[in-house]
Amino acid sequence: MGEIVKEPLALLMGLQELDRQLNQYHEEEKMLPERLQIVQQPLEQAKEMLAKLKSALDQVTKERKEKEQALQSAEEKITKLKGRLTELKTNKEYQTHLHEIESANVEKGKIEEELLVAMDRADAVKKEAAAQEKVVAEEEKKFRAEKEGLENALKSKSESMKGLEQERNALSEKVGKNLLQEYKRLAATKRGLAVVALKGNICSGCHFSLPPQLVAEVRKGEKILACTYCHRILFPAPT
Ligand SMILES: [Zn+2]
């Protein structure tokens, strides 16, 4: 008599363990996109930094071109002023004109200095951007490897899960229909924990102590019995 009851209980415990492993796998599967996003973060940050440097490079390049144009205009202005020197009649006109050339030269010198600064800045940002390109390439490589690792790990697990699924189906067929239904109902409402150990007189599912008569009956192992409080199926923990 005892054997008849102990067997379905053992089957249920086996089923629960298989379900636990399968659920764990499905959880991992669900977590994959999130984990990929996490391992992708360093790459995204490196790309963001590169984009900032590129826009800074555009800005300093534009500044440099503006200074180059300003320098060209200043040189043209000086050439023009110098060309008119011969047309001048009075000494006063001549003196005024010389002053104009002088201040144009001062202006030109200022622009030349600014151009040098702009060129230096453009060079520096260009170097920084080039270095950042390398960082992005490195991060890209790292991310690809990590992604492949995560996906491969899951893929090889998926193979072993197929075996577990088959085992579970075989076990399910052995468990009586009513008991299987009860197990499924409990597993769904008790977060996968349908069968729990009775430890001493304590249900390890809800941690309440159970009436002595129930404890004694569970120990005998002749019937499928449930906890008075949480209704989980009890099995006697080996003492
Ligand atoms: Zn309980």
Notes on the structure:
By secondary structure, the chain is mainly alpha-helical. Helices cover 79% and strands 5% of the residues. It has helices spanning 2-84, 91-174, 177-189, 212-220, and strands spanning 195-199, 202-203, 233-236. A three-stranded mixed sheet has the order 2-1-3. The longest helix has 84 residues, at 91-174. The chain is rod-shaped and about 130 Å long. The site of zinc ion has 8 residues, from loops.
Keyword list:
mainly alpha, 79% helix, 239 residues, binds zinc ion
**Structural class by secondary-structure content:** mainly alpha
Described by strand count, sense and barrel closure, the largest sheet is:
3 strands, mixed
Number of strands: 3
Can you tell me the residue ranges where pLDDT is under 50 for at least 5 consecutive residues?
Answer: none
Give the strand line-up of the largest sheet: 2-1-3
* Rg (C-alpha, Å): 41 Å
Question: What's the number of helices?
Answer: 4
Determine the strand fraction and express it as a percent band: under 5%
Outline, from the CA principal axes?
rod-shaped
Give the distance, in angstroms, between the N- and C-terminal Cα atoms: 22 Å
Helix content: over 70%
Query: Helix-strand pattern, N to C?
Result: HHHEEHE
- Mean pLDDT over the full residue set: 93
List of distinct ligands in this structure: zinc ion
Task: Tell me briefly what this model is.
The chain is mostly helical.
Which SSEs are present, and which pair or pack?
Layout: H1 2-84, H2 91-174, H3 177-189, E1 195-199, E2 202-203, H4 212-220, E3 233-236
Parallel strand pairs: 1-3
Antiparallel strand pairs: 1-2
The structure holds zinc ion.
